[in-house]
Amino acid sequence: MATGLGAIPVLVMRQPSDQQQNLLLGFAAGVMLAASFFSLILPAIEVARHQGASQAGASITVVAAVLLGAFAIAKLNDWVPPLDKLGLGPPGIAAASASVRRIWLFVAAVTLHNFPEGMAVGVSFGGGDFDAGRVTALGIGLQNIPEGLAVGVALSSIGYSRGRAALIAAASGLVEPVAGLIGVSIVTVAQAFLPWGLGLAAGAMIYVVASDIIPDAHARINGGGKVTTGLMIGLAAMMFLDTTFG
């Protein structure tokens, strides 16, 4: 619901200009970078520490997971079939174009990162501490608001209608309740997997942002300044939410 709430502004936005697209894509990139570190990597290290790992062991585990996540999303770009066969190409744009593929990799990375977040909520409630679960759910829900906006904006920038972009953005958050049920059902196993899941998601998002989103936005005419401005705004907003409510 929070992800869908974040996507609502997309419904009333006009089709952005190239400069506005760069600003918004930069915002999306900043949100994802902050989420990678403050919502995923740092909590993953803490979880590993609580599970008995040393500081070095926890760091090594999460570093390995981050690198594995980046490798997996890089390979996904090679394995994904032409988007016209999947019905994902927006009208008026070549379905297999590089920009469309990059944005869908971005959406996939955001969706992937929602899975361990949902599992974290399920584990928190499944451990028997309702207050801890409620706080975790509230913090992750607040973080999902700018994430929903980021996905909707990214899809809108490559030609999707406002309604479809908002709907897909909302759908990207649907994995969280599913993962939450899994976390409640298998608390012990979920806790053991959580550092790896968080690290994998972080690596995937960092790779997509660094290799696709930022370079693609900078490639637009006179777009560098807007990209950086948007990135810093998104980074600051998400960092505030993560450190305040995380």
TrEMBL record:
An annotated Gene Ontology molecular function: zinc ion transmembrane transporter activity
PANTHER family in the cross-refs: ZINC TRANSPORTER ZIP11, ZINC/IRON TRANSPORTER
Taxon lineage: Bacteria, Pseudomonadati, Pseudomonadota, Alphaproteobacteria, Sphingomonadales
A GO cellular component entry from the record: plasma membrane
Record keyword Acetylation present: no
Membrane topology of this protein: Multi-pass membrane protein
Keywords on record: Cell membrane, Membrane, Transmembrane, Transmembrane helix, Zinc
Recorded family membership: Belongs to the ZIP transporter (TC 2.A.5) family.
Main location: membrane
Subcellular location: Cell membrane
InterPro entries: ZIP
Pfam families, sorted: Zip
Ranges annotated as spanning the membrane: 23-45, 57-76, 165-187, 193-215, 227-245
Protein name in UniProt: ZIP family metal transporter
